[in-house]
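Forum: Protein Structure Q&A
Topic: Joint prediction for protein chains with partners

I've read a bunch of threads here and the consensus seems to be that you should model interacting components together rather than docking separate models afterwards. I'd like to see that in practice. Below is the full input, 1036 residues plus whatever partners are listed. Could one of the regulars post the assembled result?
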Amino acid sequence: MRHALLFSVFVVASCGLAYELISAALASYVLGDSITQFSTVIGTYLVAMGVGSWLSRYIARALVVWFVQVEMLVGLIGGFSAAILFLAFAHVNEAFRLVLYGTVSVTGVLVGLEIPLIMRILRSEIDFRELVAQVLSFDYLGALAVSILFPIVLAPHLGLMRTAFLFGVLNVLVALWAIRLFRETHSGARALQAQGVLALAALASGFAFSDRLTSLAEESIYADQIVYADSTPYQRIVITRWRDDVRLFLNGNLQFSSRDEYRYHEALVHPALATLPQARRVLILGGGDGMAAREVLKYPQVESITLVDLDAKMTGLFRNNRLLADLNRGALASPRLTVVNQDAFVWLDANPEVFDLVLIDFPDPSNYSLGKLYSSAFYRLLEKRLSARGLAVIQATSPFYARKSFWCIVATLEDAGLRTAPYHAYVPSFGEWGYIVAGRGAFALPVSFPVETRYLTTETLKAMFDFPADMARVPVEVNRLNSQILVRYFEDEWRRVMR
Amino acid sequence: MDRRTFLAALAAPLAASCEFADGRPRPATGRLLGPDMALGHRLLVDPAPAPTETLRVPVVIIGGGIGGLSAAWQLARDDVSDFRLFEMEAESGGNARSGENEVSAFPWGAHYLPLPTREGRSIRELLSDLGVLSGSIDAEMPVYEERHLVHVPQERLYISGLWQEGLLPRIGVAQRDFEQYRRFEDMVQRYKAARDRTGRKPFALPIRMSGIDAAAHALDATSMRDWLLAQGFDSPFLHWYADYACRDDYGTRAADTSAWAGLHYYACRDGQAANADSHSVLTWPEGNGWIVKRLSEWLQAHGAAPVQTRALCTRLSTTRTGAELDIFLAAEQRSIRVRAEQVLWAAPAFVLARVWENPPPGLREAAARVDYVPWLVANLTLDARPDDLGPAGLAWDNVLYESNALGYVVATHQAIRVKPGATVITWYRPLTDGSPREARMRLANTDWKTWVDEIVAELARPHPALPGLLKRIDIWRWAHAMPRPVPGFLRRPLSALLAGLDRPLAFAHSDLGGLSLFEEAHDAGVRAAQRVRRMRR
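Posted by a regular:
Agreed with the consensus. Here's the joint model:
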């Protein structure tokens, strides 16, 4: 029994450290600034352990029962801690820190109770000098094991959520083992055993649940830590973070990296909007991340922005989540902006309103569904929704990697009766990227930018509207609903790039 | 995620496993539907009640299918507005009827229109009125509204356990089959290009514009199957293709179809568009029901009286100068008597032969010789598209190689929305086994469940997940769907009898030409309307 209990000290200690590391790592992923997060989490945890140790003096009788129940509780709370924190980040964001320090404190208090209880249980079996020496060395050994395993094996291969559930299971197994050891001397072992089995079942389904949130396979795809993952009826949204680099992936495709998205979005918005001092009404199709809206909001003359994005979860996330709303500077909460969660084609068809600027930031035309949004039927409708001197800007994939695709979008806009001014910008995480200004008349470049820009200058702009030989126009067909030639161009061209 | 969705997420796999534990899909609901057989067969049994009222209506149109509606459209275009249209069914449309549920509108019959030919000028005019055709109707290659042209992928075939693009079999097909395909295609192209001394095509649409000469009658004397064999075509795949075409357009097997009609299918359609290839078609979620709806709206906007539905003509008698019709109004359970100067008969010929008290000699006998093939059309409402494999996933038209059905079309294919989701697919099967009479008996005596089991078993072959996605199946029984263009149909006396009636009655139904096609019905309707206007001058 003595060895058994000493082994459980080892396990219990490793679990204790694991929860601490998981909370600290998770906090630094989602909040950034890892030094602060590790310091405050470890500090809170140590204080809570102290409180737990002190509280142990109030436990007078039924030490084994107390120990078993503390173990089960640690297992449950510690085991669910990562899942709770991820969900809290995604859904309650303002209160995230409260939830973080709350779980850290509760876990700490319970872990603080463990060692004093074990020492008191073993007091009758071992000489006190031996007891202190052995219990504390196993305690530190357990911590050592986890501190080595966590960064090398557990966090990278299992992920934080599954690691937490795994240690939760270990805690409960220790409790069940303790029940077994003391079943003759203690009545009520049955009831305790039943509680333990329930706790195990809860943790196992939690483990399965973490697979529903992000699968192991998915986590290995992304280079960085996933801080948010959710499937909506339309797409899979994944947000990763590494230091200050926040990335959004939709169905596995990178949408932006916070390091260089300003280049992409400045290039999308300013060349056209800087020529429209009279622009009052702006329509954004797609662009649920609010970054394009952020750039538009810099212009005081814009009175209203209508943002049409299919996915309510997407716009909700970028409106309410602190980390993400910081990136778009709260654009989606602006009183000048209205979000419409509808299919863009259907909405445009049904709403006769006209706009001075329409920004089109749809996903690339990688399938026939999305290809409809690049068809001449769609652009004919777009033309009807432009005010007399209105402009549209279309993100049009890469003229370097997908040259035919890019020029096919140009040709399709022209077929719909619009004049086009194609241009391109370099966005490091995407490469050379293409855009098209379309309107009823010829487009003249802005002579200056009335708002602050980080990337664009009027000199850069001239080069952007010039196409070097390897991106120059190629003969292509028009993309129609009844041909969808663009999807075929796009597939062929990207297949060659990705290979 | 709230607690409820969390619990639901945990419980979902459990629930799913319960649902399919015994391998049975959850039960779908649905109904057997069809033309009002009781009302239609009233003609056979009950005498209609004596008329309680007599109306004078200068021009009466009987039948609100494409023929009757096209006649009304032509009259309205010519500023004739003193006409009334009586339709036996609760809705107009005839074979182009459609339905709608919370997921989509869907066809109950005809579901597409090939690009109109040069001869089909009136159809171009109609499409222009309905906003489908923009620019000049006389353009060599007119511009059609893009969203009404069938979106890609257009069609695919399930053969040897795989889906291929296009309907001409390519998987498991040998070199000599391909050679026969090429030779057949060459012959079709020659027929398309050929003109007789007066400049007529051998196969035109409408067929009255075809040059019907001795060669045409020779083709008409043999079946499509026998003609293929006589030409040295023995590829089973080419025979399947020809058989499929005959079943698709006429509801008859190649062995029962006049070779002239069989070739007409391939050689008559040479319509072109500026913004689509010539193989393209015009289609809508509800099929040609879209044309019916828009045409009805157009008629209303141009001052036509609303169609009187559930109104069955039970008696017709004609004089040199006028006609008298008894119309049973099912909603009011009474009859009215209508005195008309002109009648446009846009219902099937067999009905005309039955109600006309003083028909021209030979009409009853001629009408009795025409067989009508029964069809079964099922609309399946599914929670999701039955498969989503790759960009070439579900096509608009999906055909199974080994099947006595024609496959299915996807009602949501033409939707402009990007979002995936529930859909309705429309499955077609002409009952080609046995005589039309036997098939009609089977149609009348088979219950919903039996048909459903058969349909689902067939569609589960290419789509194993389909039974689990099925929400409901509604089945439409067309007892007299279309006349069979059997060998010799070109010589039928019916068309000769009906084309030049010396009575104040013009025949405006596709039975006139003997092919149940939109183009034929439209042409018959328009010509009848023009004749009526001429007679009234």
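The longest strand of chain B covers residues 470-483.
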